[in-house]
Specification:
This protein is an all-alpha fold and about 300 residues long. The protein is built from 15 helices and no strands.
Length: about 300
């Protein structure tokens, strides 16, 4: 990946080749979209907002032309490029100008919250729209489902889940956006400031007003319990949860940063697999991120 990043930094043409190449490849291997957006964010971080805007424009033209040749519809390629690259531009600009991962993440959070509120402002019943789309998925699934598959139970579960899908989808998109930014910052450090990203990430701490706002929406969801306002609050909470978890991981990284050797590697692996198997532990990680502005978990003594 370092070689591709160095190639991207050689010039505008090289950046377009690398970014668009990975974007096209991501249609077959979806995780590559993360690295494509990371390379674009790297261009903005290193060369500025103006160069980032030019690269975005030419990337959209290239993807649109490729889509026109393949399907006859350039809008598909342009739309995909906008979804992939456009959100990275403002957060990368904020990170470049402020040199603060926290501020960049909080900018991404604000964008996510605006999307959730925008959906509820434009669509009268987002849950009904999700249910309509999931019915098509359920019909396709029923045709190739195992014998013990119960479409009624699945449909009931989807009916409940549909009320929170807006926040889930936006939260997933926010996670991809921030991870792409992290990869870009790591690549930048790898090329120009070895070890810089680890130190920067370990110092990540959310600002208190942001945490207060998140706690306010959690309280609103718990107090209102039912109704449209409660649904909006819980969808907003899904977006906040992403930021809280990432802030919690920063604390875990900071606590382990002073440890060296094989034991540290084992600890990282253990944490990773435990969180995968016991997803509720992510709430504990989120708690670390929420409480850190007051408790400063990085003061935990490190043993050699």
């Amino acid at each position: 990946m370092r070689f591709i990043a160095a190639y991207t930094m050689r010039g505008r043409y090289q950046a377009l080749v690398a970014i668009c190449g990975l974007a096209i490849a991501s249609l077959l291997i979806p995780p590559l979209s993360l690295f494509s957006s990371a390379l674009y964010a790297l261009v903005v971080l290193r060369k500025g907002s103006g160069e980032g805007a030019w690269v975005l424009l030419f990337a959209l033209l290239a993807l649109g032309a490729g889509s026109a040749l393949q399907t006859g519809n350039p809008a598909q390629g342009i739309s995909y490029g906008l979804l992939l690259f456009a959100p990275s531009w403002p957060v990368a600009v904020v990170l470049r100008e402020s040199r603060s991962l926290t501020l960049a993440m909080e900018t991404a959070l604000g964008m996510g919250l605006c999307v959730v509120l925008g959906v509820y402002a434009v669509v009268s019943d987002p849950a009904a729209l999700w249910r309509e789309n999931m019915q098509l998925f359920l019909q396709a699934l029923s045709q190739n489902a195992p014998e013990d598959f119960d479409p009624v139970k699945f449909g009931n579960a989807m009916d409940i889940f549909s009320h929170y899908l807006t926040g889930t989808v936006v939260g997933g998109s926010l996670l991809s956006l921030i991870l792409g930014l992290f990869i870009a910052r790591w690549l930048q450090a790898n090329l120009y400031n070895p070890g810089g990203f680890g130190r920067e990430f370990s110092q990540l701490r959310l600002h208190k007003p942001v945490v207060y706002l998140g706690l306010a929406f959690i309280s609103a969801g718990l107090l209102l319990k039912e109704g449209n306002l409660a649904e909006i609050a819980w969808n907003l909470n899904g977006v906040f949860l992403v930021l809280f978890i990432l802030a919690g991981f920063s604390i875990l990284h900071a606590v382990l940063l002073g440890r060296k050797g094989f034991l540290t590697f084992v600890i990282y692996l253990a944490i990773f697999f435990i969180l995968i198997m016991l997803k509720w532990l992510l709430l504990l990680v989120a708690f670390l991120g929420i409480s850190d502005p007051w408790l400063d978990w990085r003061k935990v003594p490190k043993r050699s």
